[in-house]
Write the structure tokens for this entry.
Amino acid sequence: MDQQLLKLLEENALVSPETLAKQLNLSVDQVKSRIKHLEEAKIILAYKAIIDDDKAEFQTVKAVIEVRITPERGGGFNRLSDRIARYPEVTSCFLMSGGYDLLVFVEGRTLKEVAMFVSEKLSTIQGVLSTATHFTLKTYKEQGVMIDQEISEERLKVSP
């Protein structure tokens, strides 16, 4: 039952307990109690809004960085990954399979700020073998939400 509740909250964290109760065939008090338990157990970690940066006129530069690191004896990737994840510029950090070890999402006010983070902070950490930075040019979908849903139905003109 909690999986259904979590899925509904993940889709829309602002849905009312009354609506959730109807969808889950529970009482409002049961829904509130389960949500409180999930928050206290740190299963629900936060509630966040997904924002269209262009419409909000945020001047944010986003990048995705592939990072290769050396695992540490007795700790594997955890200690170094945790250190990288704690930087305020880092918005997400994932251990990956494949050609690199970590996928790190960063944000800054300018291209230079992100570049300085990579060159002065990230790449200088002992155990970081290499980085490959990819800058975000346009966001079409963020965490399952389409960003710009205006779809033009206009057909291309045919020239004779």
Summary: The mean pLDDT is 92. The chain has two domains: 2-40, 61-138. The first helix runs from residue 2 to 11.
